[in-house]
Structures are given as structure tokens and as C-alpha cells.
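Minutes, project check-in
Item: structure for the 491-residue chain
Input as provided by the requester:
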Amino acid sequence: MATEIEFKLALSPAAARALPRHPLLAGQHPASQRLLNTYYDTPRLDLRRRKVALRFRNKGWDWLLTVKSAEPASGGLARRSEWEAPAAPGRWDFSHVGDAGLRRDLEAATPQLEAVFTTDFRRTAWELAFGESRIELALDRGTIESKGRKSPICEVELELLAGQVADLFALAGELQATLPLRPSIASKAERGYALFRDQTPRPFKARPLVLPDDIAPRAAFRQIALACLEQLQRNEAGILHDPDPEYVHQARVALRRLRSAINVFAPVLPPAFTTTWSAAWKNLAGAFGDTRNWDVFTGETLPPIAAAFPTDRSTRRLFATGRRKAGEARRTLARVLLGDDYPRQVTQFTAALFALDDTATLPLRTFALQRLSRRARQARRLARRPTGLTDDSARHALRISLKKLRYPLEFFAPLLPPHRFKPYLAALTHLQDELGRINDHVTAIELVAMLPGDFRNTPILGWLQGRHALLVMELPESLGAWLAQRLPGKL
């Protein structure tokens, strides 16, 4: 069995044409060949559910049967187990698969296997000595096809043949210095299955985490951070090409979770790492803030106002103004994501994650409970202040404190007793949601105040202020319900 470690980067056709002229490749003679692959699965896509890719590859005169594990990549880096052997097309022989359980499952599935999609591309490959490593740089250009639907392939794969993972990132960084290369996490197999199922892209929410309590805190942090990075990257295309505001929302949630993770794990991380990346991700999060605020204003706050004042002409003008402001903010955000700095930041952060050693300072469960207890004490202290519910700034501080508690609760959920975790999280989430709605109205009042004076002279501002007051009156019940809960797994 081979372990495939590769870093994938997407690029435009123009950048693909420029790649062979890069100084690192100048004077070298690449190998070039057409690769035709057919991927197979059962009618129920049992292999996909098991995260296994099965293909026949036509490589010149040769045919190869390949079985790969298909763990999702994060930040562009993928690690996969791979078994490959010469084969005759249509003849299933899995004797080369070293995982006995997987081999039995493949043999059992053989009668049902059918072609699902094909990839047809030309690979131009250079083998480079870089740093202390040997790395294959492969440029793939072609198509993925399933049921008459096609999708283009234009990507670079950097595969570590021997040496250090850090050299993959260093090579990617040198390429990104002069070429617009973007870390990509969707494999050809994933994209092929999406074509087969004719899937409509949807906003991507955080995946549930699985954290064994026997791993070191730094290893847990890496797993959490990569999951946050995956959520951010999988919403990029929607932000750029789909008006659905949920893409921006989910990407912003990913950044908040990531910044929270850095803060929570700060005691076991190198100080320079924490300082550098807290600032870097805070700067990017700021680009999302205006877009999300205007999206909420036009999509959630204004509709009930329109219902309350159906004949008020200023409401229609406010909708138009809000949508214009939201569009301007979205275009500003798109420029940030399409710029050179963002993809480099993703690459550099992924490199920094894998550069962390996994020295265990204390058991993960002990660390998790210490950090959760500290966050819970801070939030309860704010909640019990005399001005905790009546003052906008105090409510805002409590809302932020609850977010700082909720995200690590979700990170460490696999380590906590479910019978106490679920009601605690439910009460916390309900309180946080109520504070979020109040904050949305405060933000809406501020946004209206920024607009021309004629908007401030309509009933709209009064309606917002009245609704805000009603929401504040409903808050004590939710606050009491959360305060009555006991932190799960409390030390």
C-alpha cells in the first residue's frame, strides 16, 4: 500500500499556459500523457459512502486498477491510502488491496459494480528536487463527464514522492508568488459524483467532529482548524457566483470557529503562531462583516417592516438601498477572495498547522474541561451583572462571551456526556439566538442612521426601536433557563 500525500491547486487556463515558463520548471523536460479513467460504484453508491474511490485507468497501452481511500482534503492537502496494480479492463481482482475488510467489501460488491463517471485529461508532469524532497508537479487539463454532463479540469497536483510535507507547501508558495494558484479541496472523484447525481451546490455547514480523547491537544487543534478551513473553502464558490446569502454566513461562521479555536488552544500553541494567525484571520473576518450585516438587514430585518407598513413608499426605497449596499459589500468581499493574498494565506496557514508538533502537555479531556469551565465562568459572570440585560454594550459583551463558549462546546462534544451536553447546548443556543436577534436590530438601527436623513424621519426607525424593546423584554426567561443548566463534564 502507498500513502499518497498531495497538495491540489486550481488555476485558470491562462495560468496553466504560463506555468511551464516558471523559473522552477525552465529547462526541464516534462512527461506528458493522456489519462482516461472510469470510476465504478454500486447503484446505491456504497463505495462513496465508505469514502472509497475505485477506478480503471488507461495509461498508454497499460491498464491499472486503483483503489483509494477518499478522506476529504483541507487547505488543499490530502492524505490517501492507495492500492494500484496492472489489470485487464472489466476484470475485478482486488488481491492487491492490503486492507482485508475493504478487500472483502469490494469483492462482495463486484456483481453490482457499474460505471459512474469518467475523467479524461492530459497530464504534464515534472519531477523536482525541492528542499529535502522529491516532488511531482502535475498539470492536469481535460474534462469530467457523467450522463452527458461535463465539467472542466484545470489543476496542479503537487505529490510528495519522498521527503517532508513542509516542502510541498514551500513549493506551492513559490509558485503562488507569480501565478494565481488557489488551494482546492474537491477531488476529481468528488466532482464526478456530483455530476453523476446532478447535485446543486449548497452552502456548506461545519461537519461533526470526531475527537478521540487519547490524542494530544495540538493534534486536536489541527483537526478542528482543518475542519474550519474546509467549511470556509467549500463556501468560496457560492460567495463568488451565487446570490444566496447563506454562503457568506457559513463562511463567516467558519472564520469565527477558527478564531475561537486559536483562542481556546492558545495555552498549548506557540505564542508566535497564536499572534500571527489570530491577526490574519481577524482581518479576513472583517471583510465578511459588512456583507453579512446588509444581508441580514435586507433578508431578515426588512421583510417584517414591509409587512407592517405595506403602503409606505420609504420601505420600498429602503429595500432598494439595502440591496444596493449589500451588492457593494459582496463585490468588495469577492475582490478579497479573488486577490493574491487570500489563497496564499490558506496555503501558509495549512503549512503552519502541519508544522506544529504533537507534544502532549496534558490529556485532551482535562484540557478541554479546563478551558470550557473558564469560558462558562466568564459568561455567567457577565450574565449576572446588574446591567447585563438592559444595556446594549453589556448584552453585546454577553453575546460574544456565549459564542466563545458555544464553539469550544461543539469542538469538544465527543468528549462530553451526551445526556448533559445536549440540554446545555440547547439552552445556550436559544439564549445566543435571542441575543443575536437583538443585536441584528441594533445593527439595523445603526445602518438606517447611516442612510440619508429622509429614512430616519419615517416610521421605520420607530418600529425597529419598538421591536428591539420587545425582544429585550423576552430575554430574562431564556437567560434563566441557561443559568439553570450545569456545564457538562464540569471539573
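Outcome recorded: The CA atoms of residues 218 and 269 lie 7 Å apart.
No further action items on this chain.
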